[in-house]
Records
---
Amino acid sequence: MTWSDKALASAASMAQVRHQLRRIARGSRPKPHTRPAYALVAEQRQQRRALRRYRAWLSAS
């Protein structure tokens, strides 16, 4: 798949790398054929959850 938006393609590629690093940190083996679009969407969901937890933590303080 080729991406017409180069910035989005770069973000997806970086998300793919971070996805593999998280797998390695958990003790899993990396999966080299993870789709960049899947990694990008999964990372955005994870960031949204982290932000929600951080906001809850800030309001509780």
---
Amino acid sequence: MLSKISAICATIECRFWLRGGWAIDFLLGKVTRPHDDIDLIAWIQNREELERALAKAGYEQISVKEQFRGRQSDFSKDGVDITFGYITNTDEGSIIMNG
């Protein structure tokens, strides 16, 4: 699943990073527990194109709670939940979650 998402992101030139449990496992170099979701981070300016590309590839977009709508997009495919959180820069150049 992650390889497929990576290919989609490469096609639209969208950089992304792992977060959550899979990020820890990648840092450790081993799978420490079963995962039923994938948490990712991407730049907010890629959001609309990313959502379109994932939908075109058969990922079902899931509605998120009101307070998270400016900060993430949720998808599901083949029983795996995928969350993209979005980051942006402050005027001072710091990286923060959008919204």
